[in-house]
Amino acid sequence: MARVKYTDSDVSLMARMMRAEAEGEGKQGMLMVGNVIVNRAKADCLDFEDIRTINDVIYQVQGGNYSFEAVQKGNVFYQRARESEKRLAEQTLKYWREHPSKYSLWYFNPAGACPPQWYSQPFAGQYKEHCYYEPIANTCDSAYRW
Fold first, then answer.
1. Contact yes or no for 77/8 (Cβ under 8 A)
2. What is the DSSP annotation of the chain?
3. pTM for the structure as a whole
4. How far apart are CA 13 and CA 124, in angstroms?
5. What's the pLDDT tens digit per position in 10-48?
């Protein structure tokens, strides 16, 4: 059973986002970005209440801007998703989860070292250039459920 409901269109959109946000970090980096996308669709808390679909997650606006830099800058659509990214997106949608993105709802690529908190949320770990952040314990139980 998939972690969230999805369509072929969702797979393509998510694959394009994963590529735009983390292509330079290889398959593992793209999987981690995909995991954050799925986690946001599953979490019913904090900034992600009433965000239930992949489309909702990718096009979410917070503070007047899209949540993902690739959508803000428009490069999420720079090329069609390749089959390899679609397979990674489906893998994440169906079952893939791994530290440090396993429970993470946020990530970013800082100019320097990863700060210990991001918008008051604790640092979960780093993969290459991206820092991942989980919700504070007991503030978002749905992020910690399968």
1. no
2. --SS---HHHHHHHHHHHHHHHGGGHHHHHHHHHHHHHHHHH--SGGGTT--SHHHHHT-EETTEESSHHHHHSGGGSSPPPHHHHHHHHHHHHT---TTTSS-SEEE--SSSPPSEETTEEEEEEETTEEEEPPPTTS-GGGG--
3. 0.95
4. 26
5. 999 999 999 999 999 999 999 999 999 999 999 999 999
